């Protein structure tokens, strides 16, 4: 992350699930807010996946911030987008499908991640006018069916990732923007460039059969690679936190 400015990790949520959600060691890692959210969920699998996603995110953020996972506090913005309380310099994105979890962190700007099964079939004729720009429809219509399916799925995960990065999700129409044939450049609905290099996009096929889409924004914060909590946070704020922790531990 110090080199590229962003990191994307993926894992099976079952591999991050504790032996029991009643494990007393789980509560301090999740924190009071997520502990309450966990026990408000009624579906057992949803509870398991929620706990695993928070553990993966906190351990990833802890590694980046060089701090213990239980010191990482998660909160949610309007619309449910997670963020790291006290570390606004780092943007966060989460996605899951089936047993796969994906976490993205970016210290230079916004980030969005999305994942789908690589063998998911999307009926092009049913979604083309809801998902694709005119330029994308022209390109996809000229492709053989199997190639069309692969291209459409890549387009889908990138559009999901980009709208997540903007904090819009499905509220933003997918026909309002498009991608070039290589799925690297952001385009207007008519096919002209819509950015000046500040956005980067990528899709990655996993051995387990999943496809991950990543949208990363570079807001021009520079190349400072230090993400340790002790140097990222305001010194006055950090001093107050350390003092408070010292008082509460006595």
Description:
The structure is a single chain. The chain has seven helices and ten strands. It is an alpha+beta fold and 250 residues long. It has two domains: 133 residues, 4'-phosphopantetheinyl transferase domain (Ribosomal Protein L22, Chain A); 104 residues, Alpha-Beta Complex (Ribosomal Protein L22, Chain A). The strands form four sheets. A three-stranded antiparallel beta sheet has the order 1-5-4, with helices on one face. Strands 6-10-9 form a three-stranded antiparallel beta sheet, covered by helices on one side. Helix 1 runs antiparallel to helix 2. The two termini are 36 Å apart. One of its GO terms (biological process) is lysine biosynthetic process via aminoadipic acid.
What is shown here, in short?
By secondary structure, the chain is of the alpha+beta class. The chain has helices at residues 26-40, 44-65, 124-131, 134-141, 145-165, 229-232, 235-249, and strands spanning 6-12, 74-76, 82-84, 91-97, 100-106, 111-117, 178-179, 186-187, 199-205, 210-217. The two termini are 36 Å apart.
Helix and strand layout, with pairings?
Blueprint: E1 6-12, H1 26-40, H2 44-65, E2 74-76, E3 82-84, E4 91-97, E5 100-106, E6 111-117, H3 124-131, H4 134-141, H5 145-165, E7 178-179, E8 186-187, E9 199-205, E10 210-217, H6 229-232, H7 235-249
Keywords: Transferase
InterPro entries: 4-PPantetheinyl_Trfase_dom, 4-PPantetheinyl_Trfase_dom_sf, P-Pant_transferase_sf
GO molecular function: holo-[acyl-carrier-protein] synthase activity; magnesium ion binding
